Amino acid sequence: MGSVMQHNILYLIACIQQELLPTLHLESKEPHNPIVVHQVPLPWICLGAGNYAAVFAHPDFPEQVVKVYAPGRPGITDEVEVYRRLGHHPAFSECYASGANFLVLKRLHGITLYDCLHSGVLILPQVILDIDEALDYARSRGLFPHDVHGRNVMMSSGRGLVVDISDFLHQSPCLAWQDLKLAYRWIYRPIFWHLCLRVPYILLDGVRAGYRLFVYFSRS
Ligand SMILES: Nc1ncnc2c1ncn2[C@@H]1O[C@H](COP(=O)(O)OP(=O)(O)O)[C@@H](O)[C@H]1O
Ligand SMILES: [Mg+2]
21, 77, 135, 211: which sits with the fewest CB atoms below 10 Å from its CB? Predict the structure, then answer.
């Protein structure tokens, strides 16, 4: 990292500690649903939330995001280790710094595949190929792609990105990406592709819950 960049990151960390963290209120209501973000101080914006953490951006730092873990949610040291092993790769973010409950990451400018379905944005086949290639790269670095689902992958200028690698140290098998590819091939391409359908969040979340039950009963 260059010295200007390092200086920028130190300044960002000061903003996180002085402005963001004292006001921010995150709550993990259920372990299987995204955490709830109650209060975000201006001018920070929330870019998204997962089951462990929420991710924020500040307009003065357009190339970085801050991932803040909800109280009691583990995994931050694993995530730092995964980024250490990944090094630089165009389909992944990078970790610039970490604190007790936050990470400073490279911002990925894209839209999650989950949000593509919601907004009717066409998901191109190249995106799927790029993510496959990125996951092979992760395996070559001693990692185990895990939990690769629609909220954890993005499309950016027609290319695929993997936005969440936090479970890549888990060795237990996870078929989420294989299942997502099957759904892309057999449901998305023949139906959604032609009709440019938009799927309401309530239906997407229903599919997510149904998929979790399917995995629980058929594969556990
Ligand atoms: N580096 C990033 N750049 C831009 N947006 C991001 C980045 N990392 C995460 N996000 C957004 O925040 C959401 C939650 O982040 P994620 O890492 O998936 O959290 P969790 O580990 O809790 O699942 C993602 O779905 C995505 O919308
Ligand atoms: Mg996630």
Answer: 77
For residues 101, 32, 192, 174, the Cα torsion angle rounded to the nearest 10 degrees is 90
What confidence category does residue 219 fall into, taking pLDDT thresholds of 50, 70 and 90?
Answer: low
* pLDDT tens, residue by residue, 116-126: 999 999 999 99
Domains of the chain with CATH codes: 3-106 (3.30.200), 111-219 (1.10.510)
Asked if residues 130 and 91 have their Cβ atoms less than 8 Å apart, the reply is: yes
* Ligand 1 atom nearest to 151, measured from its CA: 25
Is pLDDT at 134 greater than 80 in this prediction?
yes
Residue 189 has pLDDT above 80, yes or no: yes
The rounded mean pLDDT for the chain is 93
| Residues 176-188 pLDDT 10s | 999 999 999 998 9
Distance 167 CA to ligand 1 centre (A): 13
- Residue by residue, DSSP assigns 154-217 as EEETTEEEE---TTTT--S---HHHHHHHHIIIIIIIIIHHHT----HHHHHHHHHHHHHHHHH
Taking a C-beta distance cutoff of 8 angstroms, is the pair 69, 75 a contact? Answer: yes
Q: Are 20 and 56 in contact (CB under 8 A)?
A: yes
Q: State CA 161 to chain mean position distance.
A: 9
Q: 188: Cβ–Cβ under 8 A, 6 or more apart, which residues?
A: 123
Task: Quote the CA–CA distance of 154 and 169 in Å, as a whole number.
Answer: 21
Q: Which ligand is nearest to the CA of 79?
A: 1
CA of 156 to the centre of ligand 1 (A): 14
